[in-house]
């Protein structure tokens, strides 16, 4: 059903983590960093089918080279996998200091067959709790098709940004609100909060020619 949703831009910001909404991983799962020989595993994880992973392999490789590779091994010191009891990666997420100035949440994904077991919330909690409060806020870029993730982001403290543009990208909040309302439960939709981005963030993003989140 989410395939019918247009690919629009949404941006969110978290000033403070809501600790009461966080959770721990269920028994049998653990967190570790992505290894260098697992880079292709990470690239493919974002897509629901092997066909899509192959189709977008070039895009993911270009993004990795443009944003992460220039920082040496830092990607492998930040990119987190959640794994099953066979050490198989089933989800990923990490924080990245985009433009060397702002913390951003990157590539949050749990494999479809593991959704609904609390793994996504626990992974997101682990990653967000790893950042000291003094380093907040954290920003992210998402799409209305990720309405389940948007509900989770909202639960732990993220608010939707109202600014008309974030750097070179249009913020499609106004178009996306009716979409979110139609796909989310009434209670989840009504809990969504909104704010404006700080000016320093807008200045940093606008001054860069590379989209780092």
Strand content: 15-25%
Distance between the termini: 26 Å
The poorly predicted ranges are none
Q: On the 0-100 scale, what is the average pLDDT?
A: 96
Derived from helix and strand composition plus strand pairing, the structural class reads alpha+beta
Major sheet: arrangement of strands: 2-3-4-5-6-1-7-10
H/E element sequence: EEHHHHEEEHEHEEEHHEH
Number of helical runs? 9
| Shape estimate | globular
Percent of residues in helices: 25-40%
Please report the total strand number as a whole number. Answer: 10
Number of domains: 2
Summarize the structure.
This protein is α+β, with helices and mostly antiparallel strands and 213 residues long.
Which terms would index this structure?
two-stranded antiparallel sheet, 213 residues, 2 domains, alpha+beta
Give your account of this protein's structure:
The structure is a single chain. The protein has 213 residues and is of the alpha+beta class. It has 2 domains: 1-16 and 136-205, no CATH class; 22-94 and 109-120, no CATH class. The chain is 35% helix and 22% strand. It has 9 helices and 10 strands. The strands form 2 sheets. The chain has an 8-stranded mixed beta sheet with strand order 2-3-4-5-6-1-7-10, sandwiched between helices. Strands 8-9 form a two-stranded antiparallel ribbon. A hairpin with a 5-residue loop joins β3 and β4 (89-98). The model has no long low-confidence stretch (mean pLDDT 96).
